């Protein structure tokens, strides 16, 4: 009971906050409640016979995490990792997973009103993974649907 | 949990205890049903179980649960004293099973925090009806009952009154005064259990002659034969100021010799004396069921608490030989200030115990205790042994009483599984860190004698620690297996089938998490086998099979994995029907003829697939098998089905030993590092090109000592980049498992290590990497991850 209250309070506190990151110059946002931490790229062990966007597994302080390369997940070209490349560790449906992104930007407050529904575009693969689209300044920001990213 | 104002740890304890008791009850019932009779031990156990559940439920304020337990307890109390006819067994089993199910459901609700069932009248009525029916039979043959009761009584039945009435002569204690009044009080009390007592002298109050008469010849009571003599004897045992009594002119039952009394005082301010006394009584009842206590009614009786505080908790033990054992239990119980054994009843004995501040047990009870400790001087004179201090006496008493008796100390504890998980994780980390330290590149090329010595010691200790922490988590699968007995029994009844459940390898020990996760899958599969697999009696006879069906559960530890099989000798799977059904549902991804048998059977695991045309109470909704698959995959296991039409089917779970630590060979392929369990490796060797041959498909083979083995190139099957593709540059590892052998080609061997097996992240289960021969992973000394190969799957 008390735990529920706590998590409720916590999620209220985290509501409307998004971690923004870049992929190929494009800005994405992920709800902060999913995010556990951000780590640098480390040695990834390949796992054979899985789709190419699954880069492999890493050892995060004794825990084994699968890693998804978000570029490949969105059918973008692979780019070698550089200094800015990092892994966002998210927890979705009790699974902990690392997402490789080109770089993280900041944590941003976005009220629900600032986010509009994504267009129902069946032809664009990546828009299936979106929860919404927000405008910030001149740029667009795409809000990621974490549950969908993990499912095919 | 908000509905219940209970302490969590108490609730946890309650759930744990009640669940295990209900499980025990199930086992007893199944056993009894098999032999179609209850022996006295079983009846006593059921009584005890219900009694405990009643007590603890009442304490937790689950009144309805307590009430149900109470009616069952009453039922068995009756059966215990009066026995039960065979003809009543059948409805009794059904009834108790029903009650057991009800209790289980309620306990589950408690666990889930749901509201409990409020209306229990249906069950209550059933039990009461049944009890009345039992009693109805008993009333028809009252003479039998009494005579058997009398036979069983402790006194020898020498001569009964001509009309079958029992005559009891009571002698009061010397100097107790006012015998006539005491006799009157006694008769009044006795009327509660036996209304037609005739006594002599008849006129008691205000009759001084009566006092004289009672003093001289005792107080004679005539009790009609229809009353239970034992009950009356029990009653007399409990009454105070009675020196002794005779039954039907038999031997004098001298209470001062015939029974022992133990008076127990609890610590001041320990609270809930009545519940504590109740617990104590429970414990004693386990070794000596006929124990009688004063006050008798303990639960929900706050007056009892006051009485215990003032006068102590009195236990009456008729069988003196049991006294040392009981004393030991009392001694081991908590919150007891003092206790003393008293031969008979005297007012002075209260002072005895009160005067003692430590636990004191006079080594021998004297016929007249005369306040043993309160008047220390005379006691010492009478009894040299009592010179020992009270505390040494405590220890000496049980030893002297019965040398062969061992201490009953509780040596089991229940631990939260989370703590064990944490322990296991820490030990795993420790093993990894240890190898990080000892194989640190900083140490390379240094001569460090002391360091090496210390490191070796550390290695040994971590190994021991590993073994211990692993063994802590291991439990046998028998619990999960035994539960299936009940399902088979119920379904036999409902479906009119005759199926035996055969358990093999019950004692196999597996990790607790595995036992927990196979429970539901086993239940689904057993139900499926019973419902769909095994044919009806007529069909079996027609097919020329043994009309008795068989469902077999087996468990086996092969070293690296646990293999659990559920098989039946039913009609097996019909491949064509299965494929047809799959096609109708649109599950097929290729032409039916292209499906191998194995693939076809795996269709059963698709969500929403059910071959049974009709949905029955037990199965057929097609939700079972995919849940089975999910559960098994959750613990990193695999599942496959074998079947022979008309002969039966079996479902096999292969579950890796989670968090196991094993010896393994670590090998390199390109930049990747793989781990191969040592136990599958026969040898590793280099060969020359000339040793190679090719079969017609171009697959490479190598001949070793007259045997031909195919070569599995890891870099090829896993599509890895490596510079080592020449057979002469790399190394071959000959592996053998399940009678299959092959040579695995890798770049190089990196060494033999102890590795901690970790399951692959659950996310990867979606991609079926298990079937490509990867069973788990391990963290190497440098912090990198290496995949562990499952050679059996790799060779398929």
Low-confidence stretches of chain A: none
What class do helices, strands and sheet pairing of chain A give? mainly beta
**How many individual helices of chain A?**
3
Q: Taking strands numbered 1, 2, ... along the chain, how are they ordered across the largest sheet of chain B?
A: 19-23-24-22-21-20
The total of beta strands of chain B comes to 27
* Uncertain spans of chain B: 1-6, 139-162, 344-408
Largest sheet, strands/sense/barrel of chain A: 6 strands, mixed
Query: Biggest sheet of chain B: strands, sense, closure?
Result: 6 strands, mixed
Q: Label the overall shape of chain A.
A: globular
Instruction: Look at the structure and give the mean pLDDT of chain A.
Output: 83
CATH architecture identity of the largest domain in chain B: 2-Layer Sandwich
% residues in beta strands of chain A: over 45%
CATH fold description of chain A: OB fold (Dihydrolipoamide Acetyltransferase, E2P)
> What is the CATH class designation of chain A?
Mainly Beta
Number of strands of chain A: 11
User: CATH top level of the largest domain in chain B?
Assistant: Alpha Beta
The strands making up the biggest β-sheet of chain A line up spatially as 8-1-2-11-10-9
Order of helices and strands of chain A: HEEEEEHEEEEEEH
């Amino acid at each position: 009971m008390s735990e529920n209250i706590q998590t409720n309070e916590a999620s209220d506190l985290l509501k409307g906050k998004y971690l923004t990151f870049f992929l190929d110059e494009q800005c994405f946002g992920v709800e902060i409640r999913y995010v556990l931490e951000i780590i640098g790229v480390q040695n990834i062990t390949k796992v054979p016979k899985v789709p190419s966007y699954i880069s492999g597994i890493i050892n995060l302080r004794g825990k084994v995490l699968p890693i998804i390369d978000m570029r490949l997940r969105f059918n973008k070209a692979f780019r070698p990792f550089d200094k800015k490349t990092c892994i966002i560790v998210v927890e979705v449906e009790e699974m902990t997973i690392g997402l490789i992104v080109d770089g993280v930007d900041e944590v941003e407050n976005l009220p629900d009103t600032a986010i509009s529904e994504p267009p129902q575009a069946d032809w664009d693969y990546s828009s299936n993974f979106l929860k919404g689209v927000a405008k910030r300044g001149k740029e667009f920001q795409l809000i990621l649907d974490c549950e969908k990213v993990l499912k095919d | 949990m908000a509905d219940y104002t209970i302490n969590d740890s108490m609730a946890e304890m309650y759930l744990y205890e009640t669940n295990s008791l209900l499980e025990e009850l199930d086992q007893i019932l199944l056993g009894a049903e098999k032999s179609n009779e209850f022996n006295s031990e079983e009846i006593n156990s059921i009584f005890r179980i219900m009694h405990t559940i009643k007590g603890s439920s009442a304490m937790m304020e689950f009144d309805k649960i307590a009430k149900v337990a109470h009616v069952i307890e009453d039922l068995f109390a009756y059966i215990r004293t009066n026995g039960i006819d065979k003809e009543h067994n059948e409805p009794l089993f059904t009834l108790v099973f029903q009650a057991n199910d009800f209790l289980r459901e309620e306990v589950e609700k408690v666990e889930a925090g749901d509201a409990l069932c409020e209306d229990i009248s249906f069950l209550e009525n059933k039990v009461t009806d049944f009890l009345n029916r039992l009693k109805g039979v008993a009333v028809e043959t009252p003479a039998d009952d009494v005579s058997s009761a009398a036979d069983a009584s402790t006194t020898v039945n020498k001569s009964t009154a001509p009309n079958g009435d029992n005559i009891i002569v009571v002698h009061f204690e010397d100097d107790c005064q006012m015998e006539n009044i005491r006799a009157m009080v006694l008769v009044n009390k006795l009327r509660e259990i036996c209304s037609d007592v005739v006594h002599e002298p008849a006129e008691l109050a205000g009759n001084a002659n009566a006092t004289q008469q009672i003093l001289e010849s005792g107080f004679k009571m005539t009790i009609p034969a229809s009353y239970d003599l034992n009950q009356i004897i029990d009653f007399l045992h409990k009454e105070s100021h009675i020196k002794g009594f005779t039954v039907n002119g038999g031997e004098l039952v001298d209470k001062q010799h015939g029974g022992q009394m133990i008076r127990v005082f609890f610590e001041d301010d320990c609270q809930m004396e009545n519940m504590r006394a109740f617990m104590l009584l429970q414990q004693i009842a386990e070794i000596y069921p006929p124990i009688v206590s004063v006050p008798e009614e303990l639960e929900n009786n706050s007056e009892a608490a006051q009485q215990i505080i003032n006068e102590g908790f009195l236990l009456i033990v008729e069988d003196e030989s049991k006294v040392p054992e009981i004393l030991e239990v009392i001694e081991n119980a908590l919150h007891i200030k003092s206790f003393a054994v008293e031969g008979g009843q005297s007012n002075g004995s209260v002072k005895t115990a009160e005067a003692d501040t430590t636990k004191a047990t006079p080594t021998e009870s004297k016929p007249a205790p005369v306040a043993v400790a309160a008047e220390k001087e005379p006691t010492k004179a009478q009894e040299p042994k009592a010179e020992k201090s009270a505390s040494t006496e405590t220890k000496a008493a049980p030893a002297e009483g019965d040398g062969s008796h061992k201490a009953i100390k509780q040596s089991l504890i229940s631990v939260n599984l989370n703590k064990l998980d944490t322990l296991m994780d820490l030990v795993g980390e420790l093993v990894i860190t240890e190898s990080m330290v000892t194989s640190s590149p900083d140490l390379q090329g240094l001569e460090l004698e002391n360091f090496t010595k210390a490191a070796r010691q550390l290695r040994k200790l971590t190994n021991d620690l590993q073994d211990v922490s692993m063994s802590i988590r291991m439990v046998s699968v028998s619990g999960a297996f035994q539960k299936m007995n009940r399902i088979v029994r119920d379904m036999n009844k409902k479906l009119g089938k005759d199926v035996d459940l055969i358990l093999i390898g019950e004692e196999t020990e597996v990790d607790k998490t595995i036992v927990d996760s196979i429970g539901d899958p086993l239940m689904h599969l057993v139900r499926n086998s019973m419902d769909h697999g095994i044919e009806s009696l007529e069909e079996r006879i027609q097919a020329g099979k043994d009309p008795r069906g068989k469902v077999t559960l087996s468990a086996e530890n092969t070293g690296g994995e646990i293999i659990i099989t559920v098989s039946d000798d039913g009609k097996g799977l019909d491949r064509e029907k299965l494929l047809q059904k799959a096609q109708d549902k649109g599950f097929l991804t290729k032409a039916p003829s292209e499906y191998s048998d194995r693939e076809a059977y795996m269709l059963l695991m698709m969500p929403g697939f059910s071959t049974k045309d009709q949905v029955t109470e037990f199965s057929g909704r097609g939700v079972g098998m995919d849940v089975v698959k999910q559960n098994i995959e959750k613990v990193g296991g695999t599942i496959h089905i074998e079947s022979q039409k008309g002969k039966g089917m079996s479902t096999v779970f292969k579950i890796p030993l989670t968090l196991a630590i094993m010896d393994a060979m670590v090998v390199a392929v390109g930049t990747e590092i793989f781990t191969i369990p040592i136990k599958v490796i026969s040898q590793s060797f280099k060969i020359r090109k000339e040793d190679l041959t090719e079969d017609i498909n171009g697959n490479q083979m190598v001949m070793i000592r007259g045997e031909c083995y195919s070569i599995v190139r890891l870099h090829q099957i896993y599509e890895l980049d490596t510079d080592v593709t020449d057979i002469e540059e790399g190394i071959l590892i000959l592996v053998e498992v399940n009678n299959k052998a092959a040579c695995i080609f890798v770049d190089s061997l990196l060494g033999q290590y102890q590795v901690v097996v970790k399951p692959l992240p659950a996310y990867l289960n979606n991609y079926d990497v298990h079937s490509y021969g990867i069973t788990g992973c391990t963290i190497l000394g440098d912090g990198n991850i290496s995949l562990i190969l499952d050679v059996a799957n790799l060779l398929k």
